[in-house]
Specification:
Largest sheet: 7 strands, mixed
Structural class: alpha/beta
Number of helices: 11
CATH architecture: 3-Layer(aba) Sandwich
Radius of gyration: 18 Å
Strand content: 5-15%
Distance between the termini: 45 Å
Shape: globular
CATH topology: Rossmann fold
Helix content: 40-55%
CATH class: Alpha Beta
Length: about 280
């Protein structure tokens, strides 16, 4: 797979990190759950690249990657298509192509599930369930309980038994992120969690509360080569850059700042309660 960041950039620190993955007996297979096409690239791109460079198998599974339904869309969905510069019917296909390019930058495989993005989902009466910015970051619609169960069954059927599973914390409460976390937690498997970037920048208190509640956070150092690959993976999602930054230079600067502030990338897991 193509990795745009020059492997010659792997410095002493990065080689040490590669050895660390093996020294800690980390598993050879990881599956990252991505609510949308860009979420894993945004939140974990540098770590995914470094795991791949360490010889581990990494796959990004995008769950809300389904087609646009037939018929007129909500005004909210139309406004997002206008911002992204995508045609309505072809928006998921364009974003899927961006995701494949992004995964290639990270050295990861990919799978695309068929659940439509929340902005396309409708109730039995045809009403759009999430037709505003407020609805996007509110509660999951009660009618989607069955969807959570369906996703959990699909994940259980497809997941390799020995793979480590990484899912979003749903920091910021985006409904699709909540959906993915709820489905993953129904699997009764040990989970790693990632903080949802860039939403976590406005909700840092959520991570502070988790630490107080006994969650374990592990910081994974990201090398200069890992950061370059991370930035390249995000840049591949060209239609989404304007959602968060004015241009690519601003994105690269923001990613570098986020990485530096955290000393790399932190993954979280729940600590089992004593019996």
């Amino acid at each position: 797979m193509q990795v745009n960041a020059d492997v010659s950039l792997l410095n002493k620190d990065s080689r040490s990190l590669t050895r660390a993955f093996r020294d800690y007996n980390w598993p050879m297979e990881w599956v990252y759950l991505s609510p949308h096409f860009d979420d894993v690239a945004l939140s974990c791109g540098g770590l995914v690249w470094q795991q791949a460079q360490a010889g581990q198998r990494v796959t990004v599974w995008t769950l809300c990657a389904g087609a646009v339904p037939q018929g007129p869309l909500s005004e909210f969905a139309q406004s997002l298509h206008a911002r992204w510069g995508t045609e309505e019917a072809s928006a998921p296909a364009q974003r899927a192509a961006e995701d494949i390019a992004s995964c290639q930058q990270m050295g990861a495989g990919w799978q695309h599930f068929d659940v439509p993005d929340c902005i396309y989902r409708q109730g039995p009466d045809g009403e759009f369930l999430y037709a505003s910015e407020a609805a996007l970051n509110g509660d999951l619609h009660p009618g989607e309980a069955r969807l959570i169960q369906q996703l959990a069954r699909q994940l259980a059927d497809r997941l390799p038994k020995r793979a480590r599973l990484v899912c979003p914390l749903a920091v910021g409460s985006h409904v699709d992120h909540q959906l993915v976390r709820a489905a993953a937690e129904r699997l009764k498997r040990r989970l790693w969690y990632y903080a949802d970037y860039p939403y976590v920048l406005k909700h840092a208190e959520s991570l502070e509360q988790m630490a107080q509640q006994g969650w374990l956070g592990r910081v994974m150092p990201i090398s200069s080569a890992g950061l370059a690959a991370w930035q390249a993976a995000v840049a591949a999602h060209a239609s989404q850059i304007s959602s968060f930054w004015p241009d690519l230079d601003a994105m690269r600067a923001a990613m570098a700042q986020y990485c530096a502030q955290n000393g790399g990338l932190k993954l979280w897991k729940k600590v089992r309660k004593a019996p």
